[in-house]
Design brief:
Oligomer: single chain
Distance between the termini: 66 Å
Shape: elongated
Radius of gyration: 27 Å
Low-confidence stretches: none
Strand content: 5-15%
């Protein structure tokens, strides 16, 4: 590991260098609040002649000795994506302003020093090699004068619009001065001698707000070669990430899904903030590409059914969809590990539609009756985390009915008599 203080202008202006944001990094998600704070800092230090430098944290990257055909050096950024991307947007806003002002000298300086590698192939020209969606947005704002033509929503586009409204002919020189004073700790890692994943974990423990799913994604992909990274991400992880969403509320549920998957695998429920550690414990770092694919094939299979539990509208069969809607309304989330496996058995034709619907109705009846009686929900966690092992595939429905009816105490299946009594007596 080499760590040195460096000026951001010198770092970005390095010739024949590409800053690669790997596929395992989370998306660019700085909001206007962070952008405003950074721009305010740049304006403040740009105006104050007494301030010689301003520290903005660290940028950590791995140099894999990867060079393109034309000799471009690729630095894989594992920490600092948000700042690097935001600074690139500021430079694009300055570049566009220089075009408007017909300041050709400034226009060429910004474009050739901070935005592109002049002699690279057309598809490799951008200095910041962002992930696919972000790259499309950067190319769009760089190459067009009508940014509103961009299809869909992008933080890149929204933040660029903000910078365009704030950077003008009156302050662009102050902003350039401010940018020239930005200093960071330049941390270069050598994969042969350093462990990027361990260093990433250490950085995360000191304040990076990454989800458990973010950490797992990085753990899976970080140590792979760029080619294998892309293959695993495109064939497995992106599919898993896209499906583990509550579409109605636009909420990412990937951490919850992995938690349910581990519950199934280990027959034990991990704490919400320990999902990553449990995943690491279950699947060690020393794994071949084939072993990794075998793990992800299992996860990818189950996420299809998790998606329909979260989003019943995606189930094409009307009768099944109705039952899934009831389950979602009853918020029987604790049963998801069990229900995913039952759903998978239905998809694999181990059970037919009639049995599947009866199982869904049975789980509703069990949880609803317990709710009426006010039985503790904590018991359900313990039941469903290992309930699938009670299933006899030769006598599917009966084995589940029998297992539930044999529960006693706080885990019991309330009978008709006590349920009716609770309806009469409870407020």
């Amino acid at each position: 590991m080499k760590a040195n203080p460096n000026l951001i202008t010198e770092f970005l202006a390095a010739t024949n260098t590409t800053f690669v944001i790997p596929v395992y990094q989370r998306n660019y998600d700085w909001s206007r609040i962070q952008c405003k704070q950074l721009l305010d800092d740049i304006l403040q230090i740009g105006e104050n002649e007494k301030i010689k430098s301003h520290f903005i944290g660290s940028i950590v990257y791995v140099h894999d000795s990867v060079y393109t055909v034309l000799g471009l050096k690729e630095l894989t950024v594992i920490d600092g994506q948000q700042r690097l991307t935001t600074l690139t947007l500021i430079y694009i806003a300055l570049y566009k302003l220089a075009q408007e002002l017909r300041n050709e000298t400034l226009e060429n300086k910004i474009f050739k020093q901070y935005l592109i590698n002049e002699f690279a192939k057309e598809e490799d020209k951008l200095k910041l090699k962002a992930t696919e969606n972000n790259k499309k947005a950067i190319v769009h704002i760089l190459s067009t004068n009508d940014i509103n033509e961009f299809k869909g929503y992008s933080r890149i586009v929204e933040n660029f619009k903000y910078f365009q409204t704030q950077i003008n002919a009156e302050n662009f020189e102050i902003i350039q001065k401010g940018l020239s004073k930005l200093m960071f700790v330049d941390i270069g890692l050598d994969r042969q001698n350093d462990n990027p994943q361990r260093i990433f974990e250490s950085l995360n423990s000191t304040g990076l707000a990454l989800s458990q799913a973010d950490l797992i994604r990085n753990y899976i992909l970080m140590d792979l070669t760029p080619k294998v990274q892309s293959k695993i991400y495109n064939n497995y992880w992106q599919f898993i990430e896209d499906l583990a969403k509550d579409e109605e509320n636009n909420q990412n549920k990937l951490s919850d899904f992995v938690r349910d998957f581990l519950t199934l695998e280990n027959r034990n429920i991990p704490n919400k903030d320990k999902v990553y550690l449990e995943f690491k414990k279950k699947y060690s770092e020393e794994k071949t590409e084939q072993e990794l694919e075998e793990i992800l094939i299992k996860i990818k299979s189950l996420v299809n059914f998790y998606n329909k539990l979260l989003n019943p509208k995606n189930e094409p069969d009307k009768e099944i969809r109705i039952q899934l809607e009831y389950i979602k309304k009853l918020e029987i989330n604790v049963a998801y590990p069990f229900l995913m496996k039952v759903y998978e058995d239905f998809a694999n034709k181990i059970i037919d539609k009639n049995i599947f619907i009866q199982v869904l109705e049975l789980i509703q009846s069990y949880t609803w009756r317990r709710f009426i009686l006010g039985l503790p929900t904590s018991s359900l966690n313990k039941i469903f985390m290992s309930f699938y092992k009670e299933v006899d595939t030769q006598n599917y429905l009966y084995s589940i009915q029998k297992s539930l009816l044999q529960k006693s105490g706080s885990q019991r299946f309330p009978r008709d008599e006590e349920t009716i009594k609770a309806f009469k007596e409870k407020d």
